[in-house]
Design brief:
Number of helices: 2
Shape: flat
CATH superfamily of the domain at 1-68: 2,3-Dihydroxybiphenyl 1,2-Dioxygenase, domain 1
Strand content: 5-15%
Amino acid sequence: MCEDIEAFAKAMQARGVTCGPVRNEGWGMITRLELPSGGKIGVYQPLHPRPKAMAAGKAGKAARRARRARRARRAKAGKAGKAGKAGKAKKAPEGKAVKRGKPKRKGR
């Protein structure tokens, strides 16, 4: 991402880096640079407004609190679920096999 893609492309070409044409994609201006390995990488200049910066402390605390709550729920569900399921295996009616695993999707 850059602020002025035209100037960036000219600077890269002055250094011998091959750049593709600058195109307007609606959401931003984009060009592709060719890497020494032959691969290509895109660089763009956004035309859309940038989001407001979040306060790092508040976002971090909320994320940590949510992770702790998820872990607690999983631990609680895991303890309750394991006690009742121990030793129980699927039994098939006589003469029929038990299907295991995911069912196959039809139409693909």
